[in-house]
Amino acid sequence: MRLTTRGRYAVTAMLDLALHAQDRPVSLAEISERQTISLSYLEQLFSRLRQSGLVASVRGPGGGYRLVESSANIWVADIIDAVNESVDTTNCQGRGDCQSGSICLTHHLWEDLSQQIHNFLSSISLADLVAKRNVQDIAHRQVTQLLTLDENVRANAC
Amino acid sequence: MRLTTRGRYAVTAMLDLALHAQDRPVSLAEISERQTISLSYLEQLFSRLRQSGLVASVRGPGGGYRLVESSANIWVADIIDAVNESVDTTNCQGRGDCQSGSICLTHHLWEDLSQQIHNFLSSISLADLVAKRNVQDIAHRQVTQLLTLDENVRANAC
DNA sequence: CTAATACCCGAGTATTTTAGTCAACTAATA
DNA sequence: TATTAGTTGACTAAAATACTCGGGTATTAG
Hints:
2 copies of one chain form a homodimer. With 158 residues, chain A is mainly α. In chain A, 58% of the residues lie in helices and 5% in strands. Chain A is built from 8 helices and 2 strands; from the N terminus they run αααββααααα. Chain A has a two-stranded antiparallel sheet with strand order 1-2.
């Protein structure tokens, strides 16, 4: 899980979309102007967002992009995953052939933390950010997820 | 809050330190070998970690680095903050002079999300990662923090 | 005392990522 | 049919990342 400016741009653009695509599609030119992100860069980002099934395009005059699902079903983690290619963070590529056990251990610990961050961002929807409600719901989902963490951890291999 | 490979290296190195600095200092050469991170790069990272007061150095033969505080008091967010310089993620530099309200709104929403991520990583200590216990404690802290989120949000300005 | 250890520091550099440009194209519609 | 707006790919400047090199300095084992 990486969190760079690229992901920030994507989340910002999706937030703009969620705020403005109530009935009609929203063109990238609009988002570009409102959020001061270059049009061509938005095109690259939305190409990936479209391939990931988060948005759908409408061509021609009056066209633009719209959310495929309700903003309540779009998670921040999905947006960030869509625009970032995933990287292997271990040295042994998960083969588990590290020389000393300590290497595997720290890799393992990092992977676990990374998973926790991912779970966290998978519990926050665009609608949560926009509506600014449901904070207790988010917290509740967090508890549920973190309480099942031990099982995930046991299933991991270096 | 950025989460890049740089922060990953820092957390990995600090984890290595927490695992091995039980009594004696740990040299960067050891960490370099175990975690396959270049020595000079580690020197740069630990320079910042030292300036942030997270580690202390011991010079001379048998020297190295040690944690200033117990690993239970070192939070993942502190490590990542130490090695990354903070960036302003708004277009109006917090002056609030964006033309349309929608720009300020999305900036605001992103800032809020960023703060939530920071809070989350501020609730996980090195010791949590190592010990792999206290998951319920983490969850509990999460609840507490997220429930106070609304106040923070109200205090924000674009 | 001195040689070895290991931190300290700054300059420089290769690589990758980011962010953006440009140009040609296709689909849809007014 | 002209215009709008997405689609795609190649290309590029700028920044960040990851790393190297070459000197330092403090400490200590011998």
